[in-house]
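At your convenience, could you comment on the folded chain following this short note?
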Amino acid sequence: MKKNAYLGLFVVILILAVLPKFLPNNFYLDLAIRMCINAVIVLGLNLLIGFAGQISLGHAGFIGIGAYASAILPTHFGWHPVLAMAAAALLTAFIAAIVAKPIFKLKGHYLAMATLGLGIIINIIVRNEASLTGGPDGMPVPALSIGQFEFDSEKQWYWLFAVLLVFSTWASLNLIDSPFGRALRALHGSEIAAQVAGVNIIRYKVSIFVISAVFASIMGSLTAHYVGFVTPNIADFFHSIELVTMVVIGGMASIYGSLLGAVLLTALPQALSSFEGWETVIFGCVLMGCMIFMPRGLVPTLANRFNKGA
């Protein structure tokens, strides 16, 4: 990794380490946990959208697979939660690999519609299979335990998600700086040029789609255990759009942009909750302003202006 990447990772670790000391109660700790959850998912999604240039409008479906597998397998079949989570990740990887090859032969809005359809199908399944999933009402999820240790406090969950966020950030930085990451950037720049240079386009598209989907599935599983209940809303279209918006606002092809976008868009609805009846309007105006004045996203735009000033 480059020196700036190490510095950025150190800053992330420092913020996560000291943040609990400044949070007055569990409400804000819960908000910080949800920021970490969204940040990890958005990291994986940005690898797909920002670095590889492949859109996905159904990514919440993979979160739903992870969440419901972690609810169904222990509840109905007696699986251990950790084993259920691993099975969910493998199932997600399998589904993503199967559908990715035909989907990523498409381009532009055709690709967007195909990924949207995939997400909608997953959402319909979890809503309709009421005998397994509880239908629209959802179902409870058993507590997560590892050996004799059970996660039963907000602070324990915070440290788990904080460690996962640091690891995901480190892994993403290393992946992008590897030959695999350079192939992704070449793919984004020009598929024809990348193919001429010897990049197996379909293989790399499928691989990054699977990696991104597994990120989402694991966080879906952990979110289900953390909340203790799961509903089909976790896999709906609006959740997918929210995640894509985090990628775009923070900055596509920016690892730290993923983190900033997830933090801001997770916190903003809470910050605007006092504007009763107007929070959605203000939220939309903020997003429009970001897109008009910072079309490349917050982190790339600010970094560019800082470099010019220097």
Q: What stands out?
A: Residues 28-236 form one domain. Residues 89 and 214 are 6 Å apart (CA to CA). The first strand starts at residue 139 and ends at 140.
